[in-house]
Amino acid sequence: MNAKLLAKYCGAAAPVAAALAFAASPAGLFAQASVTANTLDLPQQVTMLTNPDPNVRKATAVVNGHVITGTDLDQRVALLVDASRGEMSPEEMQRVRAQVLRNLIDETLQIQAAEAEDIKIEQAEIDQTYARLAAQNERPLAEMDSYLRSIGSAPASLKRQIHGELAWQRLLRQKVAFFVNVSAEEVNELMQRLEASKGTEEYRLGEIYLSATPENQAAVEANAMKIVEQLRQGGSFVAYARQFSEASTAAVGGDLGWIRLPQLKNAQLEAVAREMQPGQLVGPIAIPGGYSILYLIEKRQVLTADPRDAMLSLKQIQIQFDPNATQAQNEAKLQGFLQGLETMRGCGSANEIADSIGASVVDNDQLRARALPEQLQQLILNLNIGEMTPPFGDAKDGVRVLMLCGRDDPEVQAGPDFDTLMQQIEDERINRAAQRYLRDLRNDAYIEYN
Fold first, then answer.
1. pLDDT score at 249
2. Residues in domain PpiC (predicted)?
3. Long-range CB contacts (< 8 A, 24+ apart) of 216-220?
């Protein structure tokens, strides 16, 4: 449930996440403060003239008059902590809280900017999106509410996040997308390049992009490395992309969709991605303007049917061993099994012979090749109908073979059409404009911190 929920909504949920202008490490700040303190001739014992009341809750930040409380921050942080699938160190928690606060500030700026343009997101629309999210995770609304509270978050926090996403997307359509133009010549040129690359590989990549300036480059790189460390420890890439990435793909968990590497428009990213294998995480990678973290979800050949999409009909023929039997007895049973397999002549004789040698048979007529373990995928795809894989397994789990009884190959995909490619180019330009728009909102904002 956690992975499903956080794959949909985890983090600030704004399509363009907050900039990562992180402060120096606590140790560095402490060292600097000590040097400064020595020059001020401060007393060793400091007597405060006022004592803060711990029962009084103050705003964490005030953004153009809108209050973000500590509770707001705690509830949003809880989503990311839950997605991390492990305990965070105090230092990591401090970093995450600082980032989530920046995301909440951005979310507030986006909602305020939408309201300034008379864009209103109705509560009914927010509730519908929330209900759809609950249904996708196979939970009734009441159960979804309870789940969020159980991890230290709240339905109101997630609904605020949904509000921010909807408001920002609608604002971009009205203020940015309307002025983005893509010519037919550009789309036709891209279609020609795509056709020319038929048979080459295309990649489905996840990205986390962090912008950096010369002033904060070292801090951004250090925090990008922290994100990679958390991901390698089992953190959800989707959750971290939604929380930290500044690309518009943050709203979909960093998923770039299927692309050809030249579409990355960066030679270094292209070279790195070309060497990646599915499931591999690489980064941070220094690029102009910041850092990228890449995750290769999958790859396939352009405009070519992927054999792994073939629908297979398989028979699994298996024997189990008695744990109380001697090694000699188990060895004899294995030899009998192997000899029986040699007498099989296709799928028609499999069940009868399996019965005679004490083996069980399991049929599966609707199994996509890519659903098999990677070690077996190519092996199965190279079989002819009626042929079997070599035996595999062990004494504990049993020994088995897979027999191919049918195969329906996938049809060659026609590739993206004109409208799809035009939409891709528009989205890329809207993304760049959205980043500039959000930077302007930050620069014009009046923000007070507690």
1. 79
2. 200-298
3. 216/20, 216/21, 216/22, 219/20, 219/21, 219/22, 219/23, 219/24, 220/20, 220/21, 220/22, 220/290, 220/291
Task: Identify the segments of the chain with pLDDT beneath 70.
Answer: 1-59, 84-87, 194-199, 301-306, 410-417
Judge whether 242 and 99 are in contact, CB under 8 Å.
no
Q: Calculate ∠ Cα 360-362-366, nearest 5°.
A: 170
Amino acid at 315: K
Q: What per-residue confidence (pLDDT) applies to 123?
A: 92
Report the alpha-carbon distance of residue 223 to residue 217 in Å, rounded.
Answer: 10
Phi/psi of residue 392, nearest 5 degrees: -145, 155
307 CB contacts (<8 Å, ≥6 apart)?
A: 369, 381, 409, 410
The pTM of the full predicted model, rounded to 2 decimals, is 0.50
User: Do the beta carbons of residue 422 and residue 188 sit within 8 Å?
Assistant: no
The residue written with tokens 């990549």 in the block is 205
Encode 80-132 in three state secondary structure. Answer: HHHHCCCCCCHHHHHHHHHHHHHHHHHHHHHHHHHHHCCCCCCHHHHHHHHHH
Query: How many whole angstroms separate alpha carbon 200 and alpha carbon 208?
Result: 25
Q: Is 165 helix (H, G, I), strand (E, B) or coil?
A: helix
The burial class, CB within 10 Å (0-12 / 13-18 / 19+), for 230 is buried
Q: Rg (Cα) of the chain, in Å, rounded? A: 28
Domain covering 307-408 assigned CATH 3.10.50.40 in the classification: yes
Q: What is the pLDDT of residues 215-226, one digit of tens each?
A: 888 888 888 888
- Buried/exposed code over 191-221 (b: 16+ C-beta within 10 A; e: otherwise): beebeebeeeebbbbbbbbbbbeeebeebbb
Question: What's the rounded Cα separation, in Å, for the pair 2 and 231?
Answer: 15
Domain edges within the chain? 1-35+56-304+418-450, 307-408
Whether residue 236 contacts residue 10, with contact meaning beta carbons closer than 8 Å, is answered with yes
* CA pair distance 426, 429, nearest whole angstrom: 5
Tell me if 195 sits within 8 A of 303, measured CB to CB. Answer: yes
Do 1-35+56-304+418-450 and 307-408 come out as alike in CATH topology? yes
The reported pLDDT for the residue numbered 1 is: 40
Q: Is CATH 3.90.180.10 correct for 1-35+56-304+418-450? A: no
Q: For residues 155 and 147, what is the distance between their CA atoms, to the nearest angstrom?
A: 9
Which of 207, 304, 240 is CA-nearest to residue 103?
240
Give the pLDDT score at 57: 44
All residues at 6 or more sequence positions from 373 whose CB lies less than 8 Å from its CB, including other chains = none
What residues pair up with 61 in beta bridges, in sequence order? Answer: 68, 449
